[in-house]
Amino acid sequence: MKRYFSLTLITTAILAGCATTSITSDDVAKGYNSIQADEIAKHVKVLASDEFGGRAPSSEGEKLTLDYLTKEFTALGFEPGNGDSFFQEVPLVSLEADSDMVLNIGGKDYQYKKDMVMGSSRISAQEGIENSELVFVGYGVNAPEYNWNDYEGLDVKGKTVVMLVNDPGFATKDPNLFTGDAMTYYGRWTYKYEEASRQGAAGAIIIHETAPASYPWSVVENSWSGEQFGFVKDNNNIDRVAVEGWVTVDVAKELFTKAGLDFDTAKAEAAKGAYHVDMGDLAATVNVKNTIKKSVSYNFIATLPGSKTPDEHIIYSAHWDHLGTDENRKGDQIYNGAHDNATGTAGMIEVAEAFTKLGKRPDRSMTFLAVTAEEQGLLGSKYYAANPVIPANKTVANINMDSLNLLGKVKDISVVGIGKSQMDELLATAAKEQGRTVSGDPKPSSGGYYRSDHFAFANMGVPAMYAGGGSEAFDEETANYRKRMSLVLRGCYHQPCDRYRDEWDLSGAVQDLQLFYKVGFDISQQSQWPTWNENSEFQRK
Questions:
Q1: pLDDT tens for residues 192-211?
Q2: Are 114 and 107 within 8 A, CB to CB?
Q3: pTM
Q4: What are the structural domains of the chain?
Q5: What angle in degrees, to the nearest 10, is found between the helix axes of 343-355 and 507-525?
Q6: 256-284 burial, b if ≥16 CB within 10 A, otherwise e?
Q7: How many Å apart are CA 126 and CA 289, to the nearest integer?
Q8: Which conformational region is residue 468 in: left (phi greater than 0), alpha (psi within -120 to 50 degrees), or beta?
Q9: How far is residue 68's CA from residue 357's CA, in Å, rounded to a whole number?
Q10: What is the per-residue pLDDT across 331-387, written as a single tens digit (0 to 9) for each?
C-alpha cells in the first residue's frame, strides 16, 4: 500500500496560491509516493547485471549504462542537459601497471598486492625509482592554516617519502587539532600524492592501516591495481612523482626496524607536530611498466526545465561507474557494483520520475548528473567542475546519492560532513515529517565529505549535501534484519560480492530518496538559495 505523506514545508507562494495551475501538496505527495522499492530494485538488477560487466569507464558496460540512462530519462520527458546531447565528453587515459614487479628496499623484494601496490600517474610506458632514499614525513601534510608542515626545512628531491594515512586529528582525537576525529582533505591519499609531487619527491608511499584508511588492504589490492584512469594532460603528468603506492603496515614496521626506528614511536611523534626523519640507509627501487590507452568516457546529464527560472538548477548527482572486470582474477571476475553505485544511479532515476508527477514543473530546473570515473578519484565530477555545463552561479544546490541504504527503515538519517551548510536544516525539516531525526556523520574519521562527487560541487562554491541511511532501526524486526544483512555484506566494498540480492530491504532507501526529492523540491520553490555556514571551508566564489 502506498503511504501518503503530509507535506508542510511548501513555499509561501504555493500555500497562498489558489490557481489550479499551482503545485498543491497533493501533487507533491504523488511524486513523493511514486518512489518505490520494487522500481529501485528493477533498475539495480539491470545496472549491476553481469551483462554490464562492472560498468568500467570506456568499456562496453559504459555504453550499456549510458543507453539505459538515455532510454529512462527520455521516457520521463527530460531534455538533454548539454545542449542537444545527454552526454559530456570526458577525455581519459588509462594506465595499467604490469603486475610483474617487485619493490626492493634494504635488499628484500616485496611482492605486488601481497606486500605493496605501486603504480605511476605519469603517462609513460615505463617509470621507476632506483636507490631512492626513504624519508618518513609523518602525515605528509603542508597545511599553513593549521600551522603544520611535515616538509619544513626538508629537501626531498630524488627521494621517496613514506607517509601515514589520514591526518593528525584522527590519531589524537583532539578537537583542536585539524578537525579532530573528522578527516580533512589533508588525510586523503589524493592530497598526499599531490603534495609529495609539489615537494619534488621521486616517489611517494602511503602506509596502509585499516582504521585510519577506513577500508582493509583488500580494497587497496583491487582499487589501485588494474586500469587506473586519469585526465589527458599536455605535460603527460610529468609533474607527478614517478612512482606512488601503498605498503602494508607489517611491511612498514619491518622497514622502520631496519632503519633503526620504532614504527609506533615515530607514529606517535608524527601526531604531536610537524615531523620527519630519515630512514637510515634504506633506499627503494621499483620499475613500473604501463600499458597506456587513451579513451573518452562520458558524464550523463538530463534536465527538467523549470517553469519560472529555468536557468537556475538544482543538480542531483550519482556516479554510474564501478571497477569493471578483472580477467586475471580467479573465480568471480566481475565487480558488479550493485550497492556502489547502481543503487545511487537507480535512485537518481526514481527521484527524476517523482518530479514528473507534479502536474506542473517546479519553478527551478531539476538536473540529473551521472558522472564517470568516480572510483578512479572522482574524475568525472572533477572534470565537470572544471568544465561546468551549468555555471556555478546558476547552480543553486547539489544533492548527491552514493550507495543507498540496504538495511531497512531507520528513525534517523546520517549526514556526511554535517554542519557545513543550510542544506542540513532543509533535510532536518523534511526528515521531521517522516518522524526521523538528523544524527550526523556516521564515521567522520573516514573523510566521507571529500570522497564522493558532491565534493566537486563544494569546491565550486555550491552547497552540496551527502546524506543517507542511519543507525537507529525502525523496529525490532528491522534491527534483527540489519544484523543479519550486515554480516552478509561485510567485506563486499569494492569486491565481486557487491551484487544485487533479492533479500535486500530497500524501504530505507525509499525513505531517503523521498527526502532527497522533498529537499530538492523545497529548494526549487524558495526565493533564497541555500548558503554555506560561516565555519565551513567552502563558500560561494
A1: 999 999 999 999 999 999 99
A2: no
A3: 0.84
A4: 12-92+295-406+417-428+438-472+497-525 (3.40.630.10), 94-292 (3.50.30.30)
A5: 50
A6: bebbebebeebbebbbeebbbbebeebbb
A7: 4
A8: left
A9: 21
A10: 999 999 999 999 999 999 999 999 999 989 999 999 999 999 999 889 999 999 999
